[in-house]
Amino acid sequence: MNTSETTHVKHRIRSSYDTFREKEKLVADYILQHPDVIVHSTISQVAEELQVAEATVFRFCKRLGFKGYQAMKIALASEVVQGIQNIHETIQEGDDVKMVAEKVFQSNTRTLEETFNVLDKEMFTKAVEMMSHARRIEFYGNGGSGVIALDAHHKFMRTGIPTIAYSDSHFQMMSASQLTENDTAVLISHSGSNRDMLQVADVANERGANTIGITNLGKSPLSERVDVSLFTVSEETDYRSEALASRLAQLTLIDALFVNVSIVHKEKMEDVLINLRKAISVKRV
């Protein structure tokens, strides 16, 4: 995973926590509980405090995607500062409706900014190429992600490329079994560990189709199964789950993919849009 080394230390830790070994969880817990101490400590001081080898701390930082302890510490320092700046965004019971709305807008803006910061240009370019040259594009998502898949289908219909969206696991499996090496499957799952999505990914891979995963930042079973992983970043709050907050980032990622694919298919889209507008016009008064 090639992500920015400027932020998201704590988010990377939380996203991959279940995959850590016992000593790695020891380091992870210490960073999460004492970030302000870490930014003023050397690697040897942290290792001594935790009674682990310096190499253990160093390898943990590498596993998070940083070049070493110093790079991780610099990134964490920026999070500590930003955390202080964002305290006012926590929703309080006494906030009036306008204040609550303002804090929600601020939170959404930050989600989009942080998701863009971890966007891997190489992976994103590959995803655009896969979709631009696909004979057919299929979008899969369950629950809330199913709504995102349907929105993606609605957008990509305008490109002239045959598309479909499925939110039912049986339809997903049946349709994936008909994919070819000329097709692209886009699998949307915030957790990246949804059993149905993993099974669909396996079937799509068996068929030789190109696969793109849109999931939360961090190592997950889905990110390891697809050809291209695109990550979102979101924070959980008292009134909104992390998965719910990620919806906006997922929609925006798909918007960015759509616009790029539209540029590639500009000439074909002109005829498609004319036909679509003509067909839809009869629905208007």
What does this structure look like?
This protein has helices at 9-16, 22-33, 35-38, 43-50, 54-63, 69-85, 97-117, 121-132, 144-156, 169-176, 195-206, 221-225, 242-264, 266-281, and strands spanning 136-141, 163-166, 183-188, 210-216, 228-232. Helix 7 packs across helix 13 (242-264) and helix 8 crosses helix 13. It is α/β, with parallel strands linked by helices. Helix content is 59%, strand content 10%.
Pick out the low-confidence regions. Answer: 1-6
**What about the largest sheet?**
5 strands, parallel
Q: Note the run of SSEs as H and E.
A: HHHHHHHHEHEHEHEHEHH
Shape: globular
Read across the widest sheet, the strand sequence of neighbours is: 2-1-3-4-5
Strand count:
5
